[in-house]
Amino acid sequence: MRYRPRAELTRVLRNYDLIQVVTGGPALAAAVMKADIPVVLQATTTAAWERQSQLADQAIAKRLWRPGMMASTSRVERSALQDVDVVLVEPDTMLAHVRSFGQQNVVKAPPGFDTDRFIDSISVG
């Protein structure tokens, strides 16, 4: 339910020219897609990748329940990755993953800053 559009959010977002969704996984972008304005998604991972290492440490009930929930979240992520206008990613693995769904507007955009401009304000030592 957390990934579904909400009427109030959609109404407010329609006042803007662009929506930028900055998140770990792409599923949250699904909540803004009904606004019908350009959406830029910045994502670094998927829910399945993130939760894979956690699965072994969970109680049996969660280990049985989680794969179904992950499949549902993965479908939402795939749809979001295909529907947004542009995807910004950091790792190469995410770049390849996004392209595998047919999204052509994907850019590798790791965080950083201009060291020529800001080097004087960094104290070393």
Write a brief structural summary.
The protein is of the alpha/beta class and 125 residues long. Helix content is 42%, strand content 13%.
Question: How would you sum up this structure, described in words?
Answer:
The chain has 125 residues and is of the alpha/beta class. The chain has one domain (7-121). The protein has five helices and four strands, in the order αββααβαβα. The protein has a four-stranded parallel β-sheet with strand order 1-2-3-4, covered by helices on one side. The chain is globular and about 50 Å long.
Biggest pleated sheet? 4 strands, parallel
- What is the assembly state of the chains in this entry? single chain
The topology string of helices and strands comes to HEEHHEHEH
Taking pLDDT < 50 over at least 5 consecutive residues as the criterion, the unreliable ranges are none
Q: Give the CA-based shape.
A: globular
Percentage beta strand:
5-15%
Rg over CA atoms, rounded to whole Å, is: 18 Å
